[in-house]
C-alpha cells in the first residue's frame, strides 16, 4: 500500500514536474557568506533533497543595493552569485529535487548595515511600520524602475545558475506588499492610487522577469493570504490581487502563507510558535485556490505528513511547503513515504535555534537536531575505530542525545536515570499551559534512543560505587541541575514558595501572587500564566528589561500577549530585596529606588538553577575518562544540552 498517496503523487508547477507535493520552503539561514552560497548552505539543502523533498526554494535573496546585507542574505545583484548557486542546484538535482530561488526587497523594513550604522529605508511613501519605526524616504520613479530591472536581472542569474524557477516575495509587509497596500502607498503617480496602479510594481517585475527568462522558466509569487494585523492586506484584498495576476496571466503558481513583518502581531505569525494553531493559513489558501487556475502552495505550521496529505486530498492546496519540520528532521519526506512516520522527529515550534539563530545573525540549527546547519561537520556519523563501554548518567535531553550518538557509532552504551521517566527538565516545561508540544523534545529523543542498541535503566540512582562497579571506559555525566535558593532577607511570616515546586504541583498559592523572576526565562512567564489561569491576581516582577528576555523574541512576545489578556501586571528592572509579612520589596535595578508591592498573599521565587555536580566532585582524581554535558556544567537551555550530547557522542 502506498503511504500518503496524494502527498507522494507527482505534479507540475508551470513547465516543471515535481516527484511529490512536498516543498522545502524558503527561509533565511545565515549559512551564506559575503552574499554568496557556501559549502555549508549547499550541504544544508542537499540533506533535505536527499531526504525526499520534491522542491527546495532558496532563501530570500536581495536584488538591489538599496537592500543588500551580505552577512545576512544571498545577494543576486552581480554575477558573483552564480557559481555558488550552481553548485547547490547540482547537489539537489542529483536527488531529483528541483530548485527555485526567491527574490526579495524589504523596503521600509530596513536593517542595521554591516558596519553597525543605520541604513536608509526606501518605500513607496513616507509611512513607517510599527516594528522598525523608521520614516522611509520616498522612492523616485527612476529608482522604482531600476529596482524592477534588478528583480529581472536577479531572476536571469538564477536561471543561469541552473535553477528551475523563481518566485517573488510579494507578501509579509515587505516592499511589494507596501506598494499594493493603500495604507502604505499614498502615491499619486502610476504606482499609486487605483488598484491597478498599486499592483503595477509587482506586475512590472513579473513582466520583466518573463522577458528575461523566457516562457519555460517557472515564475511564482509568495503572498500573505491575509497579513492578519489590521494594517496590512486582508484576505479580500489579497484574493483580488491573486485573481488579477491569474487573469493576465503573470504567474505559474501562488505560494500562500499568512503573516506580516510590519507589526508585532503579524511578525509572530511569520514564524508561528506553538501558540499558533497548525494549518493556520489553510483557509486563505483554500479560498485563493477556488478562485485561480494556477497551482497553490500552502505554508505555515504543517507539521505532520497526515496534515499535508489532508491538504492535498481535500483540495485546500496543491502543494505543501514546510520549513521547520525539515530543519528538525531532514528525512521528513522519505520517512513518510516509506511508512516510517513514527520515526519523524517532529518540530515543536520552539523557534529557539532556527528563528532564534537567524534573527541573532547566527547560522540556523535546531534544538532537537543540532546537526542542522552543521552538516559539513556532523552530516555523516563516523563509526568508532574501537568499541568502548560507555555509561551515561542522566536521561534528560543531553544524556539521551549522547547515548544515541555513541550507540549509533558502535559503542556499548548504558544510560541510567534516577526517575521513572526519560526527559529531564523538558518534563517540567511541557506541563505549562499551551506548552504540551514542547514535550516532543523528550518523546522524540526517547523514541530515537529506543531504536538504538543502548540499554536504558530507569528508577536507578547512580553512586560512585555503582560507577566503579560498572567499569566503564567513559562516563558521560548529564546529571542536570537543581533549583537555586538564593540567600534573601525574607520575613518568615511571608508565604514563600519556589517556582520549581509550583511547576511540580508541590506548592499551593493564595489569591494575590507576586513572582520574583530573577532569570527572565520561560519559568517566570509560564508560572505567571498558570497561576493567572487558576484565578490568581498575578504580578510578575522581572530582573530585566522585559519578561522572557532570555528566550526567543517571537515566543516571548506571544507569551506576553497571553499574559496581557489574562491581566498579569509585569514590573521590569525589579531585583528582589526583602519582605515584611504581606509586603514585598524590590529594588529598581537602574535607579536603585524601592519598588513596594503590598497585599501579597504568596511570593513565588524563581531564581534559576544550579548545576548538580555531586558525582563529578566525588570522583575527582579517578582515572576513568569523564565528560560532563548539559546543565551539570551550567544550567542553560535544551539547545546547549542536546548540542553537547551530540559532541560527546561523537568524541568518545
Secondary structure: elements and pairs:
Elements: E1 11-13, E2 16-18, E3 22-24, H1 39-50, E4 55-62, E5 74-75, H2 82-93, E6 98-104, E7 122-123, E8 137-138, H3 141-160, E9 165-169, H4 175-180, H5 195-213, E10 218-224, H6 235-247, E11 253-257, H7 264-270, H8 282-291, E12 296-299, H9 305-313, E13 319-322, H10 324-328, H11 332-337, H12 355-359, H13 375-378, E14 389-393, H14 397-408, E15 412-416, H15 426-429, H16 440-450, E16 455-457, H17 464-470, E17 474-477, E18 481-483, E19 496-498, H18 499-503, E20 512-517, H19 522-533, E21 537-542, H20 553-565, E22 569-571, E23 574-580, E24 583-588, E25 594-597, E26 602-606, E27 609-611, H21 614-618, E28 625-628, H22 638-651
Helix pairs in contact: 1-2, 3-5, 6-8, 7-20, 14-16, 14-22, 19-20
The end-to-end distance, rounded to whole angstroms, is 42 Å
Q: Please indicate the percent range of residues in DSSP E strands (runs of 2 or more).
A: 15-25%
Q: What is the residue-mean pLDDT, rounded to a whole number? A: 97
Number of domains: 3
CATH topology of the largest domain: TIM Barrel
Shape: globular
**Major sheet strand order:** 3-4-6-9-10-11-12-13
Helix residue percentage:
25-40%
Summing up helix and strand content along with how strands pair, one would put the structural category as alpha/beta
CATH architecture of the largest domain: Alpha-Beta Barrel
Low-confidence stretches: none
* Main beta sheet strand tally, sense and closure: 8 strands, parallel, barrel
Radius of gyration: 27 Å
Number of DSSP strand runs = 28
- The CATH top-level class label of the largest domain: Alpha Beta
Amino acid at each position: 500500500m502506498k503511504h500518503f498517496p496524494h502527498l507522494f503523487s507527482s505534479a507540475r508547477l508551470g513547465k516543471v514536474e515535481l516527484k511529490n507535493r512536498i516543498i522545502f520552503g524558503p527561509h533565511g539561514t545565515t549559512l551564506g557568506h559575503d552574499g554568496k552560497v557556501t559549502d555549508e548552505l549547499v550541504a544544508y539543502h542537499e540533506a533535505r533533497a536527499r531526504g525526499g523533498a520534491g522542491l527546495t526554494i532558496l532563501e530570500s535573496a536581495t536584488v538591489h543595493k538599496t537592500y543588500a546585507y551580505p552577512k545576512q542574505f544571498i545577494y543576486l545583484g552581480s554575477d558573483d552569485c552564480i557559481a555558488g548557486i550552481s553548485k547547490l542546484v547540482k547537489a539537489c538535482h542529483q536527488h531529483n529535487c528541483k530548485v527555485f530561488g526567491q527574490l526579495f526587497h524589504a523596503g521600509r523594513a530596513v536593517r542595521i548595515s554591516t558596519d553597525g550604522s543605520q541604513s536608509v529605508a526606501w518605500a513607496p511613501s513616507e509611512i513607517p511600520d510599527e516594528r522598525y519605526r523608521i520614516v522611509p524616504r520616498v522612492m523616485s520613479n527612476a529608482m522604482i524602475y531600476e529596482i524592477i530591472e534588478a528583480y529581472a536581472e536577479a531572476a536571469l542569474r538564477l536561471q543561469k545558475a541552473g535553477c528551475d524557477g523563481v518566485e517573488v516575495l510579494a507578501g509579509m509587509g515587505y516592499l511589494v506588499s507596501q506598494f499594493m497596500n493603500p495604507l502604505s502607498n499614498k502615491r499619486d503617480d502610476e504606482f499609486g492610487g487605483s488598484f491597478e496602479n498599486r499592483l503595477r510594481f509587482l506586475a512590472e517585475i513579473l513582466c520583466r522577469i518573463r522577458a528575461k527568462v523566457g516562457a519555460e522558466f517557472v515564475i511564482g509569487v509568495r503572498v500573505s493570504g491575509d497579513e492578519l494585523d489590521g494594517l496590512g492586506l486582508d484576505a479580500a484584498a489579497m484574493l483580488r490581487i491573486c485573481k488579477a495576476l491569474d487573469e493576465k496571466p503573470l504567474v505559474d503558481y501562488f505560494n500562500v502563507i499568512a503573516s506580516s513583518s510590519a507589526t508585532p502581531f503579524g511578525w509572530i505569525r511569520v514564524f508561528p510558535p506553538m501558540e499558533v494553531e497548525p494549518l493556520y493559513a489553510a483557509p486563505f489558501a483554500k479560498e485563493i485556490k477556488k478562485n485561480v487556475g494556477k497551482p497553490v502552495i500552502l505554508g505555515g505550521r504543517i507539521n505532520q505528513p497526515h496534515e499535508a496529505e489532508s491538504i492535498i486530498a481535500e483540495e485546500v492546496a496543491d502543494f505543501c511547503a514546510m520549513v521547520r519540520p525539515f530543519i528538525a528532521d531532514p528525512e521528513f519526506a522519505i520517512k513518510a513515504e516509506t511508512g516510517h512516520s513514527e520515526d519523524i522527529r517532529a518540530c515543536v515550534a520552539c523557534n529557539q535555534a532556527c528563528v532564534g539563530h537567524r534573527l541573532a545573525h547566527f547560522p540556523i540549527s535546531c534544538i532537537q537536531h543540532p546537526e542542522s546547519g552543521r552538516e559539513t561537520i556532523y552530516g555523516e556519523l563516523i563509526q568508532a575505530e574501537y568499541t568502548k563501554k560507555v555509561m551515561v548518567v542522566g536521561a534528560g535531553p543531553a544524556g539521551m542525545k549522547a547515548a544515541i550518538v555513541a550507540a549509533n557509532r558502535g559503542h556499548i552504551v548504558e544510560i541510567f536515570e534516577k526517575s521513572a521517566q526519560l526527559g529531564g527538565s523538558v518534563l517540567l516545561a511541557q506541563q505549562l499551559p499551551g506548552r504540551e508540544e514542547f514535550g516532543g523534545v523528550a518523546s522524540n529523543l526517547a523514541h530515537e534512543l529506543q531504536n538504538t542498541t543502548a540499554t536504558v535503566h530507569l528508577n536507578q540512582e547512580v553512586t560512585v560505587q555503582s560507577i566503579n562497579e560498572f567499569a566503564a571506559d567513559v562516563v558521560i555525566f548529564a546529571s542536570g541541575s537543581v533549583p537555586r535558593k538564593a540567600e534573601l532577607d525574607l520575613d518568615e511570616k511571608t508565604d514563600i514558595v519556589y517556582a520549581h515546586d509550583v511547576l511540580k504541583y508541590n506548592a499551593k498559592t493564595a489569591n494575590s501572587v507576586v513572582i520574583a523572576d530573577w532569570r527572565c526565562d520561560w519559568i517566570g512567564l509560564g508560572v505567571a500564566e498558570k497561576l493567572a489561569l487558576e484565578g490568581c491576581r498575578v504580578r510578575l516582577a522581572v530582573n530585566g528589561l522585559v519578561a522572557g528576555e532570555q528566550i526567543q523574541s517571537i515566543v516571548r512576545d506571544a507569551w506576553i500577549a497571553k499574559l496581557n489578556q489574562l491581566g498579569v501586571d509585569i514590573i521590569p528592572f525589579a531585583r528582589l530585596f526583602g519582605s515584611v509579612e504581606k509586603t514585598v520589596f524590590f529594588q529598581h535595578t537602574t535607579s536603585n529606588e524601592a519598588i513596594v508591592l503590598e497585599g501579597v498573599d504568596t511570593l513565588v521565587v524563581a531564581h534559576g538553577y544550579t548545576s548538580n555536580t555531586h558525582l563529578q566532585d566525588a570522583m575527582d582524581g579517578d582515572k576513568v575518562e569523564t565528560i560532563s554535558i548539559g546543565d551539570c556544567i551550567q544550567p542553560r537551555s535544551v539547545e546547549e544540552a542536546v548540542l553537547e550530547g551530540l559532541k560527546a557522542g561523537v568524541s568518545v
